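hey
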């Protein structure tokens, strides 16, 4: 009988229905797992389900029974894929489950920042409307997105879905040229040109050695004064200290992030410090987490496990 262990089940909402695999198995679920608990909890497991728990060569060397790691997420930067390959441990991930949720979240951040909604709300809480003595007041700038250029870094499923939505409200959309090669396309620009010409820049690429700190001090300085930066991809894509400085000096029009390099970020993290600015929005890695998307993820997770047990390669990384 297969032994299945889910190491961090609290990464899915309790209201999500996670049906059980079709084959005989024993299921063990833990809300969360500390690094020093991984080996003990997986010692008898043939299938591990993880979302953010890290597994590397040191753990795999102690888990001879393990045959599959089923990621309850798309990203795999918490796994040593080469070590999995060497240990003959298969890895599968979740794909194309959050198509509506992530681009809608990115659009929400863009709209909130371009209309300065948080600054207006704070002014109302401080009594500014009553103090103004007028039917309206003009403390905070408002930018229409129609006619503006959206530069998207990452032309995968989510990047393209955001592009479709942005065109729907009249934005001009361009994508960054791939950093690792690829055919030339009319709607792609070199990264520097994209940054220099875009009113809004949105990140939708994976975190790799090529993309870590893709947006740093140099790139932030290239962006148009008053431009918006959206990151619903991975925290490590942006040099967060450089972002804090760009917000402090007023060069950026605003930034909306759903991810951080450390999650959860400690109180002294640059993104937590940036919350002092009304033109910075931080959400706790929930762009993917609509009810509909989480259920699609849960269904696909079990489908991937059933496929592995049946000898089919489905959404395999290794």
């Amino acid at each position: 009988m297969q032994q299945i262990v889910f190491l961090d089940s609290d990464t899915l909402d309790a209201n999500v229905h996670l049906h059980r695999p079709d084959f005989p198995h024993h299921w063990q679920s833990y809300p969360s797992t500390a690094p020093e608990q991984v080996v003990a909890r997986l010692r008898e497991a043939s299938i591990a389900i993880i979302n953010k728990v890290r597994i590397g060569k040191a753990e795999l060397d102690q888990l001879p029974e393990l045959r599959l790691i089923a990621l309850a997420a798309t990203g795999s930067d918490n796994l040593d894929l080469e070590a999995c390959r060497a240990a003959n441990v298969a890895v599968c991930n979740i794909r194309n489950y959050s198509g509506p949720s992530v681009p809608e979240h990115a659009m929400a951040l863009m709209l909130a920042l371009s209309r300065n909604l948080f600054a207006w709300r704070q002014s109302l809480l401080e009594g500014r409307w009553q103090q103004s003595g007028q039917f309206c007041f003009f403390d905070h700038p408002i930018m229409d997105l129609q006619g503006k250029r959206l530069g998207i870094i990452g032309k995968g499923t989510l990047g393209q879905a955001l592009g479709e939505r942005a065109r729907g409200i009249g934005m001009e959309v361009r994508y960054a040229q791939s950093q690792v090669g690829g055919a030339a396309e009319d709607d792609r620009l070199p990264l520097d040109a994209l940054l220099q010409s875009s009113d809004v820049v949105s990140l939708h690429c994976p975190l790799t050695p090529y993309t870590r700190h893709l947006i740093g001090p140099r790139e932030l300085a290239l962006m148009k004064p008053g431009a918006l930066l959206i990151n619903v991809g991975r925290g490590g894509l942006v040099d967060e200290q450089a972002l804090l400085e760009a917000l402090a000096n007023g060069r950026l029009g605003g930034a909306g992030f759903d991810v951080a390099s450390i999650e959860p970020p400690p109180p002294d993290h640059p993104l937590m410090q940036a919350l002092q600015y009304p033109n910075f929005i931080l959400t706790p890695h929930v762009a993917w987490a609509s009810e509909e998307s989480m259920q699609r993820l849960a269904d696909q997770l079990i489908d991937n496990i059933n496929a592995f047990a049946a000898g089919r390669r489905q959404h395999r990384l290794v």
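The longest strand covers residues 2-6. DSSP finds twelve helices and twelve strands in the chain.
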